[in-house]
Amino acid sequence: MQDDGAALVRDLTALARTALPRYGIAADASVSLLSYSENAVFAVADPRTGRRRVLRLHRPHYHSRQAIQSELDWMDALERAGIGAPRSVPGSDGAHVQDAGSPGTAGRMVTVLEWIDGRAPDEGDLLPTLRRLGELAARMHAQSRQWTRPAYFERLVWDRQGTIGARAYWGRWEAAADLMPDGRALLERATQLLGQRLDAFGTGPERYGLIHADQRAANLLIDGERTSIIDFDDCGLGWFLHDLAAALSFIEHRADVDQLTGAWLEGYTRAGALPQADIDEIPSFLLQRRLQLLAWRGSHADTELARSLGPEWVAATVRMGEQYLQRLG
Fold first, then answer.
1. Taking the model in full, what pTM does it have?
2. CA distance linking residue 168 with residue 38, whole number of Å
3. Which of 36, 200, 284, 287 has the highest CB neighbour count under 10 A?
4. 192: phi > 0 → left, psi -120 to 50 → alpha, else beta; which?
5. Nearest alpha carbon to residue 240 among 219, 271, 269, 212
6. From the DSSP assignment, how many helices (H) and strands (E) are in the chain?
7. Is 213 left (phi over 0), alpha (psi -120 to 50) or beta?
8. How far, in Å, CA of 118 to CA of 220, rounded?
9. Largest CA distance in the chain
């Protein structure tokens, strides 16, 4: 297995190198893998210019070229609005989305981003991180509401159907391993109530729009007083409160979830406002995200994170559904 992994890294690195000339990057630039999950992400250092870049090989069959360009457009617009986000680098022909690969080989679309200095926040000290995430979310939501999207704009839609419904991008939560029949039946009842409440909540522009959709501590970079958000691969249309639920991904069941939620809300109100009706609906978004992640656990079973979510985590999801029914049913 280790040999297979090393071979995959070599193949992806070689593929990334084929794209360097398209961005005017020296052929002898160093190319090192930063992460490989949805996309393959590389650090690139050009000895000729001294510049560092981030190169992404996009996963096949997930986003269209138009959708990737739309992601880059929003990141650039956020940066222009003073919100720290990656800036895209155009290729030598002016196109930001290029192709990596050689004739006769399976290629991928590729993008290059400017390097952002910074460190990840301390995930062991969640309260200040959640306040930071909340304030950042409020600023991004404000920009999202006023930004005029390009006519070709295309991104995923994280509504009820796209998260936990018939066209859920990450699969069906009902098929989750370790989910017992009685637990599945309970979560089905909770999902029915969840759907009714979200339909009543509605998708008005004050509460639904363009969101990051994966705004977690793992996607923050902190450099002094500057906070930047990275990994826009899942950005799309959805409820603004989805960003709160995403900030609590995988830990929605914790006993201190109300305190964690309160820290996010404290940060949010530094730069924005949430009406009480939205705050009252937070349990719905926490459960929706948890069910979405239950499906993700199955569709991404080969990842280390998914493997770490064992039967106890699934059982905690069922308890969340039970509490939701008791609280809002």
1. 0.93
2. 16
3. 287
4. alpha
5. 212
6. 11, 11
7. left
8. 9
9. 63
Nearest C-alpha neighbor of 214 from the set 92, 39, 60, 96: 39
Q: What is the pLDDT of residues 100-156, one digit of tens each?
A: 986 656 679 999 999 999 999 988 889 999 999 999 999 999 999 999 999 999 999
Tokens representing 164 are 């936990």
Question: 3-class DSSP state for residue 267?
Answer: helix
The range of the structural domain enclosing residue 275 comes to 126-328
- The answer to whether residues 56 and 194 belong to one domain is no
Q: How far apart are CA 188 and CA 185, in angstroms?
A: 5
Domains contained in the chain, number: 2
243-299 residue pLDDT tens? 999 999 999 999 999 999 999 999 999 999 999 999 999 999 999 999 999 999 999
The token pair at 313 is 């985590």
169 and 233 share one domain: yes
3-state SS string over 24-58? CCCCCCEEEEEEECCCEEEEEECCCCCCEEEEEEC
d(C-alpha 306, C-alpha 316), whole Å: 15
Pairing mode of beta strands 220-223, 88-89: unpaired
